[in-house]
Amino acid sequence: MPSQRIGIWIIGARGGVASTATLGLLAMRKGLSEPTGLVTALPEFARLDLATWDQFVVGGHEIRESTLFDALDRLRTESRVLEPAVIDACRAELTEIDSRIRRGSLTGCGPTIGRLAGEAMRPLAEEPPRDTIRRLQGDLREFQQATKAARVIVVNLASTEPVAVQSSLPESWKELDRLLEESARVPLPASSLYAIAALDLGMPYVNFTPSLGATLPAIQELAEVRGTCHAGQDGKTGETLLKSVLAPMFAARNLEVLSWVSHNIFGNLDGQVLDDPAHKASKIKGKDALLGKILGYAPQSHVSIEFIRSLGDWKTAWDHIHFRGFLGTPMTLQFTWQGCDSLLAAPLVLDLARLVELSSRRGETGVLSHLGSFFKQPIGLEEHKFSQQYCQLLAWAAERAQ
Amino acid sequence: MPSQRIGIWIIGARGGVASTATLGLLAMRKGLSEPTGLVTALPEFARLDLATWDQFVVGGHEIRESTLFDALDRLRTESRVLEPAVIDACRAELTEIDSRIRRGSLTGCGPTIGRLAGEAMRPLAEEPPRDTIRRLQGDLREFQQATKAARVIVVNLASTEPVAVQSSLPESWKELDRLLEESARVPLPASSLYAIAALDLGMPYVNFTPSLGATLPAIQELAEVRGTCHAGQDGKTGETLLKSVLAPMFAARNLEVLSWVSHNIFGNLDGQVLDDPAHKASKIKGKDALLGKILGYAPQSHVSIEFIRSLGDWKTAWDHIHFRGFLGTPMTLQFTWQGCDSLLAAPLVLDLARLVELSSRRGETGVLSHLGSFFKQPIGLEEHKFSQQYCQLLAWAAERAQ
Amino acid sequence: MPSQRIGIWIIGARGGVASTATLGLLAMRKGLSEPTGLVTALPEFARLDLATWDQFVVGGHEIRESTLFDALDRLRTESRVLEPAVIDACRAELTEIDSRIRRGSLTGCGPTIGRLAGEAMRPLAEEPPRDTIRRLQGDLREFQQATKAARVIVVNLASTEPVAVQSSLPESWKELDRLLEESARVPLPASSLYAIAALDLGMPYVNFTPSLGATLPAIQELAEVRGTCHAGQDGKTGETLLKSVLAPMFAARNLEVLSWVSHNIFGNLDGQVLDDPAHKASKIKGKDALLGKILGYAPQSHVSIEFIRSLGDWKTAWDHIHFRGFLGTPMTLQFTWQGCDSLLAAPLVLDLARLVELSSRRGETGVLSHLGSFFKQPIGLEEHKFSQQYCQLLAWAAERAQ
Amino acid sequence: MPSQRIGIWIIGARGGVASTATLGLLAMRKGLSEPTGLVTALPEFARLDLATWDQFVVGGHEIRESTLFDALDRLRTESRVLEPAVIDACRAELTEIDSRIRRGSLTGCGPTIGRLAGEAMRPLAEEPPRDTIRRLQGDLREFQQATKAARVIVVNLASTEPVAVQSSLPESWKELDRLLEESARVPLPASSLYAIAALDLGMPYVNFTPSLGATLPAIQELAEVRGTCHAGQDGKTGETLLKSVLAPMFAARNLEVLSWVSHNIFGNLDGQVLDDPAHKASKIKGKDALLGKILGYAPQSHVSIEFIRSLGDWKTAWDHIHFRGFLGTPMTLQFTWQGCDSLLAAPLVLDLARLVELSSRRGETGVLSHLGSFFKQPIGLEEHKFSQQYCQLLAWAAERAQ
After folding, report:
1. Cα dihedral D313, D314, D320, D321 sign
2. Which chain D residues are Cβ-neighbours of B259 within 8 angstroms?
3. By the CB < 8 Å criterion, does A300 face chain C?
4. Quick one: which of A75, A53, A3 has its CA closest to A350?
5. What is the pLDDT of residue C282?
6. D310·B300 Cβ contact <8 A
7. Domain-ending residue, one of D340, D367, D385
8. Which of D260, D311, D324 to mutate to test the interface with B (most CBs of B within 10 A)?
9. Residue A48, domain member (yes or no)
10. Nearest 10 degrees: CA dihedral of C138, C142, C143, C148?
């Protein structure tokens, strides 16, 4: 196969995760960085025919103004998480990617996200959903043509939306499609409009956020109808990853978890948005539900997320796990996780792009449930133990090894 | 099957783990305690024909004087880890078990353990290995006859011996057996003499300590020759359990562990013995080796074990894991584990007794490698990831389910 | 001086702190316990003519039914913080004290506290403030006569009330007194009614809680008018104590605190009441204000208090302090405090009773500002650095040494 | 006073602390950095006539080759603790200071430090102590003349020497002086030779390390004889600072410390030298002794220092404090301190230079015991409580305020 071009289209293209993923892609291509943190760089995936870093081209939607370089420079200065030399070396490519970023959508994003938007978003304030979808599709098609990409993978990395009300929406794509044609008031948030735009064009859609995205039955059906695939939701990068690793240990040893308290503090833009209770609710749901599913009972649990500006991109989690052992004796495990949010998430975004691209190339359709280990709330998968989820990914890879 | 009696013969029968396991067995039999902490009480093992708590009778070897009641009362008072009412309710049975405890062996145990021994041990100071084995076998036979036990499982819970020199010993049982007959100076430590005594009688032997035990090829061969089974070594109860759970996560996410520092502090008798560098070396080896095996490379690691008297049975571990993520950014995970050593180990001892008894009843011979998840240094198993080890146990159980 | 009797009258007499203080008093009197945790048992206070443990008699107000023994037995069983033998040895005296406990007041305590009240409180639901004060005073007089106590110290240990609205109340005692005579709707919470009842009888009043108590100018004036003394407010026992010890270090080293995050989890009755946001607000205010006062600037701070049932009396605090050092480099201090709430507070209650009794005996009036080191929000003291507060106490003691 | 020049002569001039202090001095002079972390920049010291940053010139002794720029660049790259722009902006001045750095001494430094030395040190291997002193004094005089400095303050920041044997040395300067003239084998380590060289020239000497330095009675006498001053020893920057802050709290609350465990891990050059047990012993002594002095009794304590390469300049300390409260109940405080060693120490070095310069200018002689809050083992001061030590500094400053 002559080396095809592959597009990654990022929603929230100048956010912390997006700009870090973009920088990492460029840095690896230039040999400035090792593939540390990339699951697909492990030997277990060496025999898959995955796209290589130099095949990828990046574009995306964004509601904010500014540049990728500024976003990275802020990460570097405020959080000391990036090497200045690497950013400088990639400046020209970053500017080129900036030129491929288009205006996104604020539909259903609420006032907290709205306040982040640039001037250019203002004329779109009243845009009906159907028009938004058409506009987004225009951007996607233009990107694909301009870059001559054989395939485009759309990845949602935008700020977490408020909890969406889903009940009133039709279950089938046909009905939802009709509703979109007929009404300017369909209660779909931006994340779902992006999903529809992508899937309807046959482009795979990955939802790395807790927002609604493609989880609606009607949108999942659309993926099947158009013969494309999707995956989600909410990247599992830190504290929840640890929960999905540690909770199975308590279960396997028949140690009864009495309470599990999780405090998360961080100071990046994601944190600022989650400081709004409406957005926080979306996030906390995903961080908490897996305990009951893994343990088979629901211990008292508490999850807090607090915006502490000084921490910047450093997400620090303190978990206090109180458990009962033999003869009823209570014991304690505490952990403190100090991770850079963007740098934990970014490689997983590139992994997902590669893995989803391969599935797409091989004609796999519908939800890609073997990707569950990447997500806090894996669509199409009831399994929440990390180790078991990862075994499923390995099994999938083994079947497709060349 | 009419309910047979099963003997558990504990070496180190009045130690913290042994007395807690004995108390727990009695308490569960009386309905005073739930089976929390017992792996074999999980639903996954419900369809195995495991012996029930009321089938077990307990005896053992010990080098110290005192009583089980005193050992438990000290645990309760100094470490506040047991309910007084439970100990009181079991007092009569504990006294009865005390009457079935016989003098152990100090061979190769070094002066630190020697100082713990009671007066009654003094006449045995120069006992040649072959005589020791015969004496121990006499005790085991007497116990089996007196209790009419269908099978006796021998479990080593004695204090960790100094690192043993194994190189000079013959590889086959036949040669080792001859050497024992001919020489009073065979460099076998007590743990191996107990192992030989048990296996030679066809009784399964479980080594829950880092001591040499049955690991010698010649002794493993003896198990096969006598058609019995064995398992070991060094119970995985706390910090090493966490290592075997967390290290696979770093591996699966391609996060490079730069250093892993483990500090353990505790104040029970086990801690006092391990405060002697010769004994500590045995222990640390097992706590450290698995990292390289799980990760595929050896990060700088440091393990310390300190005897801090005030902590009593509360073993507190602080681990500091420094790792590198995407674009080379270093991050940190720290955990503090506050567990009661005896109460974490005791249920695993009962689990092992039940599982080994079933293997023995079913005629399984040699090393029981499916029990690897219970041990820091699993004999006969290269796998160190806890989740994979546990899957092997579940698979073994599934095959034998009724 | 022939040994006089001293009364301690505890509001919330069957709560965790109260019952522990009562038990400790009895245990020390019987020689069953050392005075660990008692500030007044330090050599620095040896030359003060403080009352001795056998001089004290205990009574109190309570809204709940049950007994002191039951309260202590629950503490022991649920939290494993007390020795059973000590409780058993004091059972008779505890029962005697139970007989001296009278019905308290629920005025202004809100529905969360109301739900804890026993049947006997029901007839008092509509009692006007003036009648409540008279009733409480009747109880205090009866106690003093029955026990022949030379002095009675009233200590408020009741659950934290919701934040009280104070603005509408008169500033002078004369006017407040008249208002109480004339109106049945004066917005004074129970803690202030107890304060008025005590001070009006010339009995000192100590407020160990964040409730309003004697902080109103009019009530402070009453203490002066009646020639008695008072102290408060909100005992400084754990995390805030650490703040008042650590923040001065950052100040003295010119290290800039960027953010200070404090998470508190615990599961006792106090925690249950604080789980109600109206009550939590009272508490958090006191835990947070001192930072700005010590540092001279207000870093971002966050205080949470969560009710985690399984922890019982074990209050666990995790604090994350992010600070900037030389050349702007950010660094971190984290601490985890695992203290028994009742056992940290109880000795301070006895200390305060002794110290206030001495002040009262010596004729000191008004607010006892030298007791500031005992309180989160010291009345009459602007100093919040623990070390400086403690120096003031030592200076006071040195002046009164014999 | 026209603005005089003040020399700071640093022993170990290219070490982490020295190069950071030098950079910080330059950065503040250029307005590139705030004086965060500098005690003397606090308002409490504003009315002292302290030298300003632009008065200072820097020179020093060093045994290693390389440059200040390289040392700083390594700190930045390996530990991410410095801003590249700041280093770049000061490059010319750093190079100039490099030209004023002379060869130090390896006498009594042991092989671990010896291995760090550059080629240029080789010819000095057998230099007798008296010759070394003369050579060092030549360097100091040359520096003072070349820079026209009114006063030169000598600060020892070199790697910790092995524990020195002091017993055999004479107590008076006269005798020690004679011995140095007569013998080439006087067992004085380099730190003491530097001290003699400086004090003998009337230059103040500050020992920021645990090495012997000026602690010998004979050398302390020399300071008095020459009418100059000195201070030491071992800068208190992190974990020991916390000990001197927290231990007084336990004392003031009569909480009995049962055990205090301190684990320190770090990876800079200092850590590499301390990894040698002979050097570690010097350090641990100072970190441990203060507990008994503050508490009035000696709880079990344990201090470990481990060299963990990946941590670079990030010194992480975990302390576990087990204490007993009321009614004998054990509780726990744990803290984790994540500080940059060089950046915590560097501002204190500049503070000491300023404070000692003022004392020198004012004619104060002998040990400057009011500087005790800066040191782990304050010479001439029995007080170890940080707050009290700091009060002494404030009192000294208040007396000298203008």
Report:
1. positive
2. 308-311
3. yes
4. A53
5. 73
6. yes
7. D340
8. D311
9. yes
10. 140
SS (H, E, C) D45-74: HCCCCCCCHHHEEEEEEECCCCCHHHHHHH
pLDDT tens figures, B220-239: 999 999 999 999 999 999 88
Domain assignment present for residue C45? The answer is yes
Question: Do the domain assignments include residue B1?
Answer: no
Q: Does A44 touch chain B (CB under 8 A)?
A: no
Q: What share of residues in chain A are helix, strand, coil (percent, to 5)?
A: 50, 20, 35
Identify whether residues D184 and D271 lie together within a single domain: no
Residues C189 and C86 in one domain: yes
pLDDT at residue C171 in the model: 92
In a domain, C370, yes or no: yes
Residue A199 near residue A367 (C-beta atoms within 8 A): no
**Arithmetic mean of pLDDT, D366-389:** 95
Confidence of residue C289 (pLDDT cuts 50, 70, 90): confident
Beta strands at C314-324 and C256-266: parallel, antiparallel or unpaired: antiparallel
CB contact under 8 A, C328 and D33: yes
Residues A44 and A181 in one domain: yes
Asked whether residue B34 falls in the same domain as residue B139, the answer is: yes
Number of domains in chain B: 2
- Determine the pLDDT at residue B242: 96
CATH code for position C279: 3.30.360.10
**Does the pLDDT at position A167 exceed 70?**
no
User: Hey, is the C-beta of B330 within 8 angstroms of any chain C C-beta?
Assistant: no
Using CB atoms, which residue from B311, B330, B336 is nearest to D322?
A: B311
Sign of CA pseudo-dihedral D342, D344, D345, D348: positive
At residue A1, the pLDDT reads: 47
Asked if the C-beta of D196 comes within 8 angstroms of chain C's C-beta atoms, the answer is no
- C-alpha–C-alpha distance, residues D46 and D31, integer Å: 19
- Asked if pLDDT for residue A280 goes beyond 90, the answer is no
Contact flag A338-B326 (C-beta cutoff 8 Å): no
Confidence of residue D283 (pLDDT cuts 50, 70, 90): confident
Q: What is the mean pLDDT of chain C?
A: 93
CA distance C109 to C117: 11
pTM of the model: 0.95
Structural domain for D28, as ranges: 6-235+343-400
Domain end residue (candidates: D325, D340, D355): D340
Strands D6-11 and D151-156 come out as: parallel
* Same domain assignment for residues A25 and A139: yes
Partners for B (CB, 8 Å, 3+ pairs)?
Answer: A, C, D
The torsion angle over the Cα atoms of residues C277, C279, C280 and C281, rounded to 10 degrees, is 90
Q: Which residues of C touch D86 (CB under 8 A)?
A: 327
Poorest-pLDDT segment among A79-88, C287-296, D322-331:
C287-296
> Mutating which of B326, B338, B387, B391 best tests the A interface, going by the most A Cβ atoms within 10 A?
B326
* Chain B residue at shortest CA distance from D306: B302
- Kindly state whether residues A299 and A380 are assigned to the same domain: no
Residues of chain D with C-beta less than 8 angstroms from the C-beta of C252: 39, 42, 373, 386, 390
